[in-house]
């Protein structure tokens, strides 16, 4: 009976959330559309300024090509109609379909995010568990201070420090890009090449979130350790390690799932700095390039794709959470 | 008050944080007195190592003293951190209070609004905003305030939701006091503690955001900021490590100190510490 | 510690999976870089440096420039000019084929110059609007009839101004959307092979190239490399063989020059003749007053700018024409030495006295966005130099769109930029000083608003003079007037640096350098 009710609830919830996603995405598009248009200069002036030579005919022909000379509401209407059809338009600077450009770069960001997330979770859980083992000890305080340190470090600076130490001084890891330029590896060699390039940016990205995980794990484990069923297990004489592993950790993990989902959504739009420092060819650097070039369709496309991805991540996380912990009712 | 102070100052980290922060404030305020020529004055050849004559922290890519730059950078960080947080808190408290107090449609609207800011990639939005407003101190402060106020609003809303059904509020309503009066004179003082905690953490993150913007070249070009110092050192780092390392350490120390203070405030003002 | 392939691999030996790095099979392949992917590979559509460097290998011009700035035959085997300078007849190289096998004829030249370039490209438009008619006399002969003599006309036919495009591909189509904009076809030594988005553009040798014995390389890769630091590392590790102008920040030039595998050279950009300048909006006071501009020049230590800000690269400029270019006349120039005391005296004299707070005047300086490079640093220095004579400058930064928009619409006090002369003052210099090129909304025009009737007349006379001595006389007088007036603040001649691996030879064969392609380049062994 309850099973049935839960399923119906869940489907209704999903439907509501999807509707909300669409509405918010539309709001995102509208706001960004006007915001970008209001900035001084447009793609035509950028190109004119960057070519060695320019005159009015040149600028006007570019404007006509991009439809920048039409009135604003007309431009907006044309854009919205196209997006509804799944056509995100053409990038001004690259003269390629926006969707293609984004799809080409998105996997690079997702790869980096996934790596960073895994490292952050693994490292964070280990640190947090260590700290929670003996709360109040020197080890515990040490982990807390370490976590606070990770919070305070500017991400872009950390990346540059990593380059300084590992590429400039020690020369053991490559400082830029996703692959060795010109090597054209395939198969296993390519995987190894990408993995090697992923180490520095991935670790840089992971460090901040590792701190969060450590603190969260520590708090959760301490809380859970206090709870009744654990005390019961201990009273029964089950070995301390088993208690930790079986009962504490598993129960502590649930909020971590939610947190992971939150992180995933932040990461999709939050890699701009790390990607910039390491010249990682992902969505972050794409967004920066789009802002600089006033490439409106590309920028709007990034906003839309990101908004959709983030909403989906959040939705999946919420559902996963409700499955993991059946006591949770899917709320608003 | 005394109880609050004693709870605040009991942890060594908080004390260290306060001491370090105080030192940074002193440096920031005293920079024009110590180094009246300003951080943009070229004093020698570029990229001289720390310890060179007259340059305890070395010189940057233009031949300016790193030490003077670090001192003046403190002013920018503190100025931006504090003012953008004040703006964000102002906006956030206002909107959060209204939403929490009145509930209903107003609250719904606010929740949609904050959700909007959660979904949009915040830093990209910030870049667009700064491009729109042209990079300057003003656009930095406004930009950071605009993407961080939802955090405050959420906390404020939560507090007001809880507090509005308390007895003292109902009493005030029965007495016929105006809504405005209730919100600002009755509820707000009680809602302050978590808002203060959030605010103090936000100063640190605002400093990090400002340095990130300056690093990307989107900060005020007339100001010497720690982030812009790091951004200017991207090529120079390969031949002069101090141009990158020193400003970053400055940021880290400042934000760490602020985080310690925020943590301490959290403990002191936390649920156990409140009325 | 130097980052070269050997030390990377040496350090790598300690980390097992790094050892999977095999040195890329290099062979007879030239690896180059591009800072960003070009928006198109149709040069007339978008004449940026990146497109130039790639398309210079695919398409060719009628003539090439030698180190003495004299035109040499290319697609045009020979040419004649009538004594009155009005009629140019070019005899084309026979048996030349386009990359798709179609024959190259006079029709292609007429189409390119008269229609495609004139319609799309501002610089070509400037040149070909001088022509009364352009027509094919027969399959291999083209006649250009000018309305009046234009002594820079031959220079207009260089690769960077007039690449010859295939008529059979572009005629009758919409130039902007022609699919061959992404798969260009030319007559040049290299054919377009592949564009791997986000990674590289590959060109491959043209086996039917009309110049026998060339090219001497099999493939060229232009690899995407967005930041200066990345490009430096790529060059040091041997991932790329060449770095072209502005690819690498001058900050690290010492490090690169110390690298035994890398050669540094400043030859190859004389044809561009780029000068870093400051411009002033001469519609506004005090910029309208010549004395202010002169005083400002005295306040700048341009030697310091070259030594400390550009790390020794380049040389102090003396006027609108670069010292290595034709028509340069050192005798007539007004020089401005670094003399802050004199600057202060001049400002006092013109009535710009110090007010309360020691500031005479406060104004803005719009910086060209160059990612913190030489121009940005130069602006920082200028602020300090100006403050020493009582002028308070507010630095304004912008991105490309904002900068182009503001300068084009005259919404600035002072700005910095760098301009190429392109071999002849009529092409690259006059556009900034003739009143007819004061056009609102167009960047890179006479945005300062400089007006001088004598200068207008002189430029017109100089470019139409048939006798080179007469042209020189006019250009000398122009240099005299412009430097006396400080019509623009010429700061330093850029001398961009080319860095290349030891194994590369004959990288450039003339002052147009990389724009003319790598048709004569060859590679030796392994570095």
Shape verdict of chain B = elongated
Structure annotation, total helices of chain C: 15
Distance between the termini of chain B: 12 Å
Round the mean pLDDT of chain B to the nearest integer and report it: 87
Q: What strand order characterises the main sheet of chain C?
A: 14-18-13-17-15-16
Tell the overall outline of chain C: globular
Low-confidence stretches of chain B: none
Oligomer kind:
heterotrimer
Which stretches of chain C are low in confidence, meaning pLDDT under 50 for 5 or more residues running?
1-25
Radius of gyration of chain C: 24 Å
Q: Mean pLDDT of chain C, as a whole number?
A: 87
Give me the number of helical elements of chain B: 10
Overall number of strands of chain B = 0
Detailed description of the structure:
The complex is a heterotrimer of chains A (332), B (275) and C (527). Chain A is an all-alpha fold. Chain A has 13 helices and no strands. Chain A has helices at 2-38, 43-50, 56-66, 72-84, 98-133, 138-152, 155-169, 187-225, 228-236, 240-270, 272-278, 283-292, 296-324. With 275 residues, chain B is an all-alpha fold. In chain B, 73% of the residues lie in helices and 0% in strands. Helices cover 27% and strands 20% of the residues of chain C. Residues 1-25 of chain C have low confidence and may be disordered. In chain C, a hairpin with a 2-residue loop joins strand 6 (131-138) and strand 7 (141-146). Chain C contains 15 helices and 21 strands. With 527 residues, chain C is an alpha+beta fold. Chains A and C meet through helix 2, helix 3, helix 7, helix 8 and helix 12 of A and helix 1, helix 4, helix 6 and helix 12 of C.
Highlighted features:
heterotrimer; B: 275 residues; 73% helix; 0% strand; elongated; C: 527 residues; alpha+beta; 6-stranded mixed sheet; 15 helices; globular
Brief summary of the model shown:
The complex is a heterotrimer of chains A (332), B (275) and C (527). Helices cover 78% and strands 0% of the residues of chain A.
């Amino acid at each position: 009976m309850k099973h049935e009710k839960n399923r119906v609830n869940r489907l209704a919830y999903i439907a509501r959330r999807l509707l909300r996603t669409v509405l918010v995405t539309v709001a995102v598009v509208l706001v960004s559309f006007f915001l970008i248009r209001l900035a001084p200069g447009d793609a035509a002036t950028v190109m004119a300024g960057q070519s060695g030579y320019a005159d009015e005919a040149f600028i006007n022909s570019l404007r006509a090509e991009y439809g920048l000379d039409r009135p604003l509401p007309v431009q907006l209407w044309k854009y919205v109609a196209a997006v509804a059809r799944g056509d995100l338009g053409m990038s001004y600077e690259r003269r390629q379909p926006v969707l293609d450009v984004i799809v080409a770069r998105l996997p690079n960001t997702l790869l980096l995010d996934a790596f960073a997330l895994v490292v952050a979770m693994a490292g964070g859980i280990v640190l947090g568990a260590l700290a929670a083992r003996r709360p109040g000890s020197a080890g515990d305080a040490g982990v807390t201070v370490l976590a606070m340190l990770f919070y305070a470090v500017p991400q872009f600076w950390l990346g540059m420090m990593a380059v300084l130490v590992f590429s400039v001084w020690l020369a053991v890891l490559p400082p830029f890009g996703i692959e060795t330029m010109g090597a054209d590896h395939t198969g296993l060699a390519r995987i190894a090449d990408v993995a090697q390039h992923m180490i520095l940016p991935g670790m840089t990205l992971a460090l901040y979130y590792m701190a969060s995980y450590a603190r969260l794990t520590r708090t959760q484990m301490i809380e859970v350790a206090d709870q009744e069923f654990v005390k019961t297990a201990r009273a029964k004489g089950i070995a301390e390690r088993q208690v930790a592993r079986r009962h504490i950790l598993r129960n502590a993990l649930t909020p971590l799932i939610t947190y992971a989902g939150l992180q995933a959504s932040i990461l999709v739009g939050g890699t701009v700095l790390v990607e910039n420092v390491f010249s990682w060819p992902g969505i972050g650097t794409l967004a920066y390039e789009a802002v600089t070039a006033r490439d409106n369709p590309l920028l709007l496309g990034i906003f839309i794709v990101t908004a959709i991805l983030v909403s989906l991540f959040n939705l999946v996380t919420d559902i996963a959470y409700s499955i993991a912990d059946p006591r949770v009712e899917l709320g608003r | 008050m005394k109880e609050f102070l004693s709870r605040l100052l009991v942890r060594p980290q908080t004390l260290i944080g306060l001491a370090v922060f105080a030192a940074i404030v002193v440096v920031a305020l005293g920079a024009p007195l110590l180094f009246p020529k300003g951080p943009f004055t070229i004093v020698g050849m570029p990229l001289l190592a720390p310890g060179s004559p007259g340059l305890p922290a070395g010189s940057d890519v233009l031949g300016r003293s790193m030490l003077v730059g670090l001192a003046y950078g403190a002013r920018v960080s503190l100025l931006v951190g504090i003012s953008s947080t004040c703006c964000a808190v102002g906006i956030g408290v206002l909107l959060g209070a209204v939403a929490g107090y009145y509930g209903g449609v107003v609250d719904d609207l606010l929740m949609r609004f904050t959700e909007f800011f959660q979904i949009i990639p915040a830093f990209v939005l910030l870049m667009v905003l700064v491009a729109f407003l042209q990079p300057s101190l003003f656009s930095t402060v406004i930009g950071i305030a605009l993407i961080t106020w939802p955090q405050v609003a959420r906390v404020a809303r939560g507090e007001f939701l809880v507090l509005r059904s308390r007895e003292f509020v109902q009493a005030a309503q029965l007495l016929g006091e105006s809504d405005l009066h209730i919100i600002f004179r009755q509820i707000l003082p009680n809602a302050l503690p978590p808002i203060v905690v959030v605010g103090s953490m936000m100063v640190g993150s605002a400093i990090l955001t400002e340095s990130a913007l300056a690093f990307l070249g989107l900060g005020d070009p007339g100001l010497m900021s720690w982030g812009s110092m790091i951004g200017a050192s991207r090529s120079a780092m390969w031949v002069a490590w101090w141009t990158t390392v020193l400003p970053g350490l400055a940021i880290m120390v400042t934000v760490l100190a602020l985080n310690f203070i925020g943590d301490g405030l959290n403990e002191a003002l936390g649920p156990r510490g409140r009325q | 510690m130097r980052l070269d392939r050997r030390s990377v691999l040496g350090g790598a030996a300690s980390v097992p999976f790094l050892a999977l790095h095999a040195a890329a099979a290099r062979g007879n392949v030239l690896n180059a870089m591009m800072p960003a992917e070009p928006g198109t590979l149709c040069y007339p559509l978008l004449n940026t440096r990146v497109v130039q460097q790639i398309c210079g290998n695919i398409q060719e011009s009628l003539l090439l420039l030698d180190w003495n700035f004299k035109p040499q035959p290319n697609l045009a085997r020979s040419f004649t000019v009538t004594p009155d300078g009005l009629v140019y007849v070019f005899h084309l190289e026979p048996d030349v084929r386009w990359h798709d096998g179609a024959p190259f004829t006079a029709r292609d030249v007429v189409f390119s110059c008269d229609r495609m370039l004139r319609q799309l490209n501002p610089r070509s438009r400037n040149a070909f609007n001088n022509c009364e008619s352009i027509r094919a006399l027969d399959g291999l002969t083209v006649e250009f009839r000018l309305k009046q003599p234009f002594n820079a006309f031959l220079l207009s036919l260089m690769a960077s101004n007039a690449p010859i495009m295939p008529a059979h591909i572009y005629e009758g189509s919409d130039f902007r959307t022609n699919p061959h904009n992404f798969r260009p076809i030319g007559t040049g030594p290299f054919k377009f092979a592949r564009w791997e988005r986000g990674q590289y553009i590959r060109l491959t040798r043209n086996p039917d190239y009309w110049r026998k014995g060339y090219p001497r390389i099999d493939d060229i890769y232009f690899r995407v490399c967005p930041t200066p630091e990345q490009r430096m590392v790529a060059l040091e590790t041997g991932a790329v063989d060449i770095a072209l102008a502005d690819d690498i920040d001058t900050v690290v030039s010492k490090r690169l020059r110390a690298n035994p595998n890398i050669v540094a050279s400043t030859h190859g950009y004389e044809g561009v003749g780029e000068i870093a300048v400051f411009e002033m909006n001469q519609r506004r006071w005090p910029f309208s007053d010549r004395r202010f501009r002169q005083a400002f020049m005295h306040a700048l230590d341009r030697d310091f700018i070259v030594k400390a800000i550009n790390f020794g690269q380049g040389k102090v400029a003396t006027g609108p024409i670069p010292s290595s270019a034709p028509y340069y006349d050192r005798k007539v120039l007004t020089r401005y030495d670094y003399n802050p005391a004199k600057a202060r005296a001049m400002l006092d004299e013109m009535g710009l006295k110090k007010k309360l707070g020691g500031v005479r005047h406060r104004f803005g300086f719009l910086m060209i966005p160059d990612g913190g490079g030489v121009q940005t640093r130069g602006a920082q220095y200028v602020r300090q130099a100006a403050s020493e004579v009582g002028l308070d400058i507010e630095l304004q930064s912008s991105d490309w769109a904002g900068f182009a928009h503001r300068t084009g619409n005259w919404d600035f006090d002072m700005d910095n930029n760098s301009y190429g002369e392109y071999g002849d003052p009529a092409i690259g210099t006059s556009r900034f000083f003739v009143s007819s090129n004061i056009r609102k909304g167009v960047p890179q025009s006479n945005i300062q608003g400089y007006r001088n009737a004598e200068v207008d007349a002189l430029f017109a006379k100089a470019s139409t003079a048939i006798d080179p001595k007469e042209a020189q006389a006019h250009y000398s007088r122009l240099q005299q007037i412009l430097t006396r007036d400080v019509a623009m603040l010429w700061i330093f001649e850029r001398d961009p640096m080319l860095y290349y691996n030891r194994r590369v030879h004959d990288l450039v064969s003339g002052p147009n350098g990389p724009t003319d392609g790598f048709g004569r380049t060859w590679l030796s062994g392994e570095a």
